[in-house]
Task: structure prediction
Amino acid sequence: MEILSSAPPGPAGRRRRSISRGYLALFATVVIWSLPSLFQFYLLRYYDVWAQNFYRYSVACLAITPFVAFRIRRGAPLLDLRAFALCLIPSLPNVVHQIAQTVALFYIGPGVYAIFTRSSVIMTALLALIFFPEERHILRQWRFQVGALLGLLGAVGVFWFQPGSNTVHVAIRGLLIAFVATSCWALYGVLVKRPSAKLGSVRSFGLVSFITSTLLFPLTCAFGNVATPLQVSWLVNLILVVSAVTCITTAHILYYVAIQEIGVALAQTLQLLCPLGALLLSSWIFHERLTVAQIWSAAILLFGAFLAMQMKPVATTETAENI
Result:
């Protein structure tokens, strides 16, 4: 009679489980990151731009706090003033991004915005070339040049050819707001590289979420309605909490698990599936439709982003969740 061995699995078995865990984390992130613009678009009916972002980030900060405390208990250094200063720099463009992306939803639907924001891959790469001189050789690569051009043309087309654009003035204003939002997200992706490397993803995000919430609070007091949670139904508040915990905190953690297990290149490439999920859900829930010109523009944008991502600038690996 054969005796079954209870010996632990070898390196190959552990590697297979690691890859499987990475794929599960990645596909969970793709699903989750199809949702942020839909949540924000829905919440605009009840929360103003300022209050929505302040409370979403405050909830995300509370949700990440136990993970930060766990890391510190496991021996990670305490967060000090130097760490605070390190995370303050990327938090500034993050605040602008959060406000601008919500305002952009007054001009375009959540599905269209999810497509438009994929151009941040190209913008992040361009900023990486500025901040990291060793990567400037990428600018001479034809894939990056063609991808950047196609991405830019596709982004403009997705926005410009939307149905119901009443005037060129409104279209240009909305395009500029969406461009500011995407540019600030790309800048955040580059600037967060240093604190993430020094502090780790969980502790750096915990501090960034705290600083972002702190900066958004006086803006909400000045321009928004800080008492909104008391004036809306419990269901609306629950939706805001769910959006913050899933789309900000959970997605951030899962994305870094995916990067560690299966690598940055594949993780970045499959993020291009997010707009498809967002568009399908927006079409079902909000009855958003694309024109033929927008569909072609979206295809051009996503193909351009795919080409540009083949260059894999180091800083693009740091962009995490529609944070």
In short: Confidence is low (pLDDT under 50) at residues 1-7, 313-323. The longest helix spans residues 234-262. The radius of gyration is 20 Å. The chain is about 75% helix and 0% strand.
